[in-house]
Amino acid sequence: MKLSLLVAISLISLHVRAMDVLDVRVKTLGSAFSPGAVTPAEIPGKLTLPVGSKLPAVLLVHGSAGPDARGAFHTDYLAKNGYAVLEIDMWAPRGVTSAAGRPAHPGDTLADIWGAWEFLRGNPRIDKERIAIMGFSWGGMMAVSAAFGLKPRNAPPSLTTANFAAHVAFYPVCDMWIDTSSGARYSNPARQSKSPLQIHNGSKDDYDTAPDVCPRMKARYPNMNIELHVYEGATHGFDGSTATPRTIFDPVAKNFRGGEVTIVGNEQVRERAKENVLRLLNTVLKK
Questions:
Q1: Whole-structure pTM over 0.85, yes or no?
Q2: What is the CATH number of the domain that holds 191?
Q3: What span, in angstroms and rounded, lies between the C-alpha atoms of 131 and 20?
Q4: Which residues of the chain are modeled with pLDDT < 70?
């Protein structure tokens, strides 16, 4: 075996060994929106730390199914590009085993994401000013909620001016943020983040009431820094690992009226979305 090849293999092995993957516990901050909803004192997470210090970081927030292959896919390329990644599990400490057991309101998990924000800021290997949030479906709603400046009930003073450096939302149920929907009640312009919000949606995403809701949402908030990507032919969950179509019934789809939702993984669209994510994060978070 040639010396150059041996050196290359050794460098790759060194990189793999040096990338730390840690099981962590994250303290939540504040409480749930819904009366009587219980907020766990802490949630589990997986923290991936590539080589280096003062790292930019991305908080990954799962969808209704909980942590799955989407988190692994995004963690892999983010870490390889020098980003620390914290993937949290909001469902395990709440005993949620299916979509039917989700919290009643997206605001019920704001305590989780802002606790994770503070956790990342407290890690000495992470640059506290370069932390982004990325989420899928329910997690996408969390990313958008953060862009609108929403905080948990009974939030501590440390969260008064808290802000993510960037927000990335995959199919975030844009219906939530149109004038007549429940999310619009919380869209106070005074709280809206000036950090960019990048939205990824499919032209065949049938979770919302109509295929044009994300463009309408972008138009509804012209003063927000929103970058919208609508991928032709893609469905809800297009960055999933399986190309076999499946249909689920979700009681909060179609703007809380309930309905069937088609989910198909699309590798080509997933790769395009990855390129768009990296372009944004490299622009905003890399020095």
A1: yes
A2: 3.40.50.1820
A3: 18
A4: 1-17, 179-186
